[in-house]
Amino acid sequence: MIEGIYEIAKTLYAIDGKSGLYDAEAVINDHKRQFESGEINADELEEELRLFTTRIEFTPDGEVISRMKIPDGVTEEEIREAVEAGEIGEVKDGYFEVEHSVWKMIDGVPCYDSKNFGEEGEADGPTWKELVSDSEGLIDYALGVMKLRKIG
C-alpha cells in the first residue's frame, strides 16, 4: 500500500566528484564540510539542509502532497501572511505545502505524475511513472533523483 507519509532517504548528489544516490547523513555531512571550508554560506547551508525536512504524503484519494518543515523562529503571523499571499501552501503539523501532484493505480501498480520533475508527455495530461521499491524497501521517486522511506 502506497498511502502514507514518506521522507527522503537518499538523493542524487556528488561527493568528491562522484555522483550517486547518497543517504541523508552523507549529504548533510558534505554540506557541513562545505560550510566549514567557506564553499557555502550559512543561508545556503540552511537551504540545502531543509531538503531533508521534506515529507511527501500519498493520500488515499490520489493526491501527492510535498511539505517542508516550517523553519524555527517563524511566527504564526508570518505563516498566516505567507499563506494569504500565496507564498506557501496549506500548513499542517508544522509543515507547509510546497508542491501538489497526483498518483493512481495502473494495472495494480502505484504510479505518480512525473511532470513536476521535468518529464515531458501529453500537453494536457500526466506522465505516469511506477513507484518501484528496491531491496531496502525504498521507493524510487522524482525520476530516480530521490528514494523515499515510509515513516507513517
Describe the protein in words.
- By secondary structure, the chain is α+β, with helices and mostly antiparallel strands.
- The protein has one domain.
- A hairpin with a 4-residue loop joins β3 and β4.
- The termini are close together.
- 16% of the residues are buried.
- Give the overall form: globular
Q: How many helical elements?
A: 3
Beta-strand content: 35-45%
How many structural domains in the coordinates? Answer: 1
**Main pleated-sheet profile:** 10 strands, antiparallel
Order of helices and strands: EEHHEEHEEEEEE
Our Rg estimate from Cα atoms comes to 17 Å
How many angstroms separate the termini? 12 Å
Helix content: 10-25%
* Overall pLDDT: 90
Give the class from helix and strand content and strand pairing: alpha+beta
Any descriptors?
single chain; 152 residues; alpha+beta; ten-stranded antiparallel beta sheet; 3 helices; 10 strands; globular
Annotate the secondary structure layout.
Layout: E1 4-15, E2 18-23, H1 24-36, H2 42-50, E3 55-58, E4 63-69, H3 76-84, E5 91-92, E6 95-106, E7 109-113, E8 128-130, E9 139-141, E10 146-150
Antiparallel strand pairs: 1-2, 1-3, 1-10, 3-4, 4-6, 5-6, 6-7, 7-8, 9-10
Summarize the structure in short:
The chain is an alpha+beta fold and 152 residues long. Helix content is 20%, strand content 39%. It has helices at 24-36, 42-50, 76-84; strands at residues 4-15, 18-23, 55-58, 63-69, 91-92, 95-106, 109-113, 128-130, 139-141, 146-150.
